[in-house]
């Protein structure tokens, strides 16, 4: 799975599937803790098993979770996140039909809110666990071609170290890693 080509989330139904709050929580849990059942997720998230089962099926429909056949037995189905090592990318707004752009905007709002919450926790997390916190800020001057090269090198580095929870070596911790770039000249 690590060698897959980048996958662009240009289907508005897929974007909508990823903006649902319950599904975001479920995906976060599966990313951080590995496989779980709908019952386990329901207990953790304060939801009924039928609700979590429905949302898991929706996530499966769009390719974000998959059943873990070797752990599933009878009616107990175990689920894991698929894209833990997949290179998911978002389309430029002009690559979507005008009626589909609100789904992309909603997806961005949800993700930016999650990132804002992480950023706000950073000072406290640094005081509590400084050995696992790294920060970097920089201003660089790149051509469009260099910027694309930089981004692809960054994505390759992420893919090199990306693992699902169940595949990680002993002592590995889940880390939130974020990269964003914004033109410094307002352009």
Automatic annotation (TrEMBL):
GO molecular function, one term: DNA binding
HTH arsR-type domain location: 13-94
One Pfam family recorded for the sequence: HTH_20
Domain of life of the source: Bacteria
Key words of the record: DNA-binding
InterPro entries noted in UniProt: ArsR-like_HTH, HTH_ArsR_DNA-bd_dom, WH-like_DNA-bd_sf, WH_DNA-bd_sf
Membrane-spanning residues: none
Name of the protein in its database record: DNA-binding MarR family transcriptional regulator
Biological source species: Planomonospora venezuelensis
